[in-house]
Amino acid sequence: MIVYRICITKYANDLSGEGARLNGGRWNNKLIPCIYTAESRALAVLEYTVNVNIDDIPRSLSFALIEIPDKNILKLNEADLPGNWKQSPTPSSTKQFGTSLLTDAKNAVIKIPSAVIPQEFNYILNPAHPDSKNFKILDIQDFVFDVRIKLK
Q1: What is the pLDDT at residue 142?
Q2: Which of 131, 130, 125, 140 is closest to 15 using CA atoms?
Q3: Which of 55, 101, 122, 133 has its CA 20 to 30 A from that of 17?
Q4: What is the CB-side half-sphere exposure of residue 83 using CA atoms within 13 A?
């Protein structure tokens, strides 16, 4: 299966989860590495857009196309998630929920509904899982962010 990650170009080859470890995210506390990916390029752009200020968008962005194994994927639905999982700013309950799944390390990948479009899915990759050695970057493509998405 192929998933998509949008990131600063200089980190496009990085599958360590260091950015999420340093900053935390909706589904992880700081100090817990993971890699946020999406099932499509469009969803990756939407997720990136809602999580960045227009003044902080770098000029050099890339899509990383990552192949992940179809096994060891924990599939979650909205009913499985904390009741306030879509709130902004991100509630601590979602960070704790995801952190417990990542530190449990039973699954290499967590398939989870997008807070932007719950009918579509993000895939959180766990670089601490032994199967993470099977995550493969297939391609890196330059991406120019269209600022019209953030204007108005």
Answers
A1: 96
A2: 125
A3: 55
A4: 0
Whether the CB-CB separation of 27 and 95 falls below 8 Å is answered with yes
Number of H helices, E strands in the chain: 3, 7
Contact 122, 39 (CB under 8 A): yes
Q: What confidence score (pLDDT) does residue 51 get? A: 85
Q: Which tokens in the block code for residue 129?
A: 């899982």
- Residue 35 — φ and ψ, nearest 5°? -125, 120
β pairing state of 61-67 and 73-75: unpaired
Residue pair 119/43 in contact by the 8 Å Cβ criterion:
no
pLDDT in tens, 12-27: 999 999 999 999 999 9
Cα 99 from Cα 129, distance rounded (Å)? 13
Does the pTM surpass 0.90? The reply is yes
pLDDT at 10 exceeding the cut of 90: yes
How distant is the alpha carbon of residue 77 from its chain centre?
16
d(CA 76, CA 23): 24
Q: Which amino acid is at 60?
A: S
